[in-house]
Amino acid sequence: MECGPAVLTVSSSYLGVDGHVGRTPLVRLRHFSEATGCEILGKAEFMNPGGSVKDRAALGIILDAEKSGALAPGATIVEGTAGNTGIGLTVIGHARGYRSVIVIPETQSPEKISLLRTLGAEVLTVAEKPYSDPGNYNHIARRLAEENRWYWANQFDNLANRQAHFLTTGPEIWEQTNGTIDAFVAAVGTGGTLAGTALALKEKNPLVAAVCADPYGAAMWSWFTLGNPSVNDGDSHAEGIGQSRLTRNLEGLTVDEAYRIPDQEAISAIHQLLREEGLFLGLSSGINIAGAVRYAREHGPGKTIVTILCDSGAKYLSKIYDRKWLEQEGLDPDLRLVS
């Protein structure tokens, strides 16, 4: 007896990659938790489709622009980015029918620049310049949008960024910790992750501490502790974080603690986690983890502390995972954050 051709029925509940942003797991950082007597948990944002926490902002910005009519089918999205938001916009843009043009400082890791091009973005590398300079990558992206009638994502001042974390990251953490979270720790790039997540958690429980972990050379520690962003006290190799101004995404946010985190602590954190727990992370994750450990030491034991594992270390092989580069920069990957 012959059978007819098989018929595959696809359920409408199946989604493309743009439908799988978020719902990332919380990973217990075992050694750091045991050493401090706290539960230190990392939200595994490197598991998003584009490989970073910035996928949430990218999706939120795109959905908001579609809703407002600012994005039409086949449109071009342009953005100035240190890399991860550009990757998120490109991946999610492909899934929803858009083209991406990414303006990125030439100082960012070659792996990210290469990946953006491989993903199909048009990539313009530009000199690293401060925000006050018209040649800053954000200003270039804005001008390109104006000249070509493209959609400028404007991640730093577009409140759809913060709202994405308010609607997803914060509620997910609350649910995953069964409401037992005591503190949320995050560095500041655009400010969307810290502000949106902290505001959502404080809406559930005002006693949840919002904690900023800031690399040296960034201005948010100065802003939150001194009331001005003028302190210039060094530099950091962390990419995608280290804000010099108060963005719109940060407006209205107050934090309970703000820490200066040196690169060595961040390097120690990520290399120790790789060796001892199999987590392979970028330097911004190290800044966050070191901030969480510092909060645990100051306020523990017994606290439940959540931070963001922003992205994978695969984008930084030529820098923070290259021993020769680390030696040149005076950084020791074998120095442990906690013993």
Automatic annotation (TrEMBL):
Ranges of residues in domain Tryptophan synthase beta chain-like PALP: 18-311
GO molecular function: transferase activity, transferring alkyl or aryl (other than methyl) groups
Pathway(s) of this molecule: Amino-acid biosynthesis
Pfam families in alphabetical order: PALP (PF00291)
Keywords assigned: Amino-acid biosynthesis, Pyridoxal phosphate, Transferase, Transit peptide
An individual GO BP term: cysteine biosynthetic process from serine
InterPro entries from the UniProt entry: Cys_Synth/Cystath_Beta-Synth, P-phosphate_BS, TrpB-like_PALP, TrpB-like_PALP_sf
CC cofactor: pyridoxal 5'-phosphate
Annotated signal sequence range: none
CDD domains the UniProt entry points to: CBS_like
NCBIfam families found in the cross-reference section: PRK10717.1
Name the record gives this protein: Cysteine synthase A
Organism encoding this protein: Terrimicrobium sacchariphilum
Phylogenetic placement of the source organism: Bacteria, Pseudomonadati, Verrucomicrobiota, Terrimicrobiia, Terrimicrobiales
